[in-house]
Amino acid sequence: MRERAEEQTGGLAPCVGEQDVVDAERILGFSLPPLLRLLYLQVANGGFGPGYTLLPLVGDGRTAVAEYGPLRDSRPVYWPRGVLPILDWGCGMYAAVDCLAPDAPVLLFEPNAGPDDWADAWFLDSPSVAQWLTSWLDGTGWWEEEVMMAEDGPEPTPWPDAARRLAAGAGR
Mapping DSSP to helix (H, G, I), strand (E, B) and coil, where does residue 57 land? Predict the structure, then answer.
């Protein structure tokens, strides 16, 4: 993973320290899934991965922790508790990890269709962070141009827990 990340970027950002992760988890109010935690501790503090690359966890500028707060505080509620944005695809779209689910699925938030129900803007991108990263390493993710053009290419599916999770967060 680190080798591919270095190849992609030409030089990685420094990793975060254990205390940075502990502080981030305290601010967020939930723990990071083990693999996501390891990425930030052992590969880099963002700046690698598919598309526009992973957001840094912490630091100056845009970070996963800094993005989460305003998204969660929005009215109407369109961002579930425990779903951490990890990548900005542009045009309001995010890849995010459901940090409260045991398998840590990667979700796609795609608000551009102008849904009447925000649950319709949430999609399951990958069943786990590990599978999502494998798709990046193998070049088989839906975001890859060749995959998008293929008639039988994978596409994100509606996230079945979206409505329930959004409703649970509405009462804060």
Answer: coil
